[in-house]
Design a protein that fits this description.
Layout: E1 6-11, H1 13-17, H2 20-31, H3 40-53, E2 60-66, E3 69-78, H4 89-96, H5 99-103, E4 108-115, H6 124-133, E5 139-143, H7 148-156, E6 160-161, E7 170-174
Parallel strand pairs: 4-5
Antiparallel strand pairs: 1-2, 2-3, 3-4, 5-7, 6-7
Length: 176
């Protein structure tokens, strides 16, 4: 993959919904192998979440293409006040306690980041995160403790790990 053939496009919620099939295909490719091993039910659940998430206030997505072929994406929105419950929010609160209110509320929350296996190692994830998060806002994301490649990526990009090594979930923060 050559960098001059890669484009990153910031999408609104409606533009994202119009590209749901592309994002679902990337999701399948990115998360079907180790360490995730997600199946078709997980991909269908992602599509359902995306349909709802794209309607959130402040939702944004970034689509990465190589020679016009979709190869990566990220989705994000601002974390509302009060800090939400459900999804993985309860795990985050269990790890960080009341610090979520000062560290994460109002920050850009990266919900999904996926790059097709054949497109990895080219800086796409970093480019997607930069465009999603901007330069002036705090930004946070989470991953699983067994996702060692993702953890190394975020550390290499300068994100600060907020949770300890024995945590059930790994929370990262990028401050401007």
């Amino acid at each position: 993959m050559q960098a001059d053939r890669v484009t990153l496009e910031r999408l609104t919620g409606q533009e994202t919904l119009a590209r749901t099939s592309h994002l679902a295909n990337i999701y399948r490719a990115a998360f079907s192998g180790p360490p995730w091993h997600e199946d078709e039910r997980a991909a269908a659940a992602f599509t359902a979440r995306l349909t709802a998430d794209a309607r959130r206030p402040g939702f944004a997505a970034v689509l990465a293409r190589n020679d016009g072929e979709p190869v990566g994406f990220g989705t994000a929105w601002r974390t509302p006040r009060p800090f939400p419950t459900g999804r993985a929010y309860d795990l985050v609160r269990a790890e960080l306690g009341d610090a979520v209110e000062t560290l994460l509320v109002g920050a850009v929350e990266v919900d999904e980041l996926a790059v097709s296996p054949h497109a990895r190692g080219q800086g796409l994830a970093g480019g997607i995160l930069d465009l999603l998060c901007g330069r002036t806002d705090p930004c946070w994301l989470l991953t699983a403790p067994h996702a060692t490649d993702a953890i190394r990526l975020y550390e290499r990009l300068g994100w600060r790990r907020l949770t300890g090594p024995r945590a059930d979930i790994v929370v990262f923060l990028r401050s401007p």
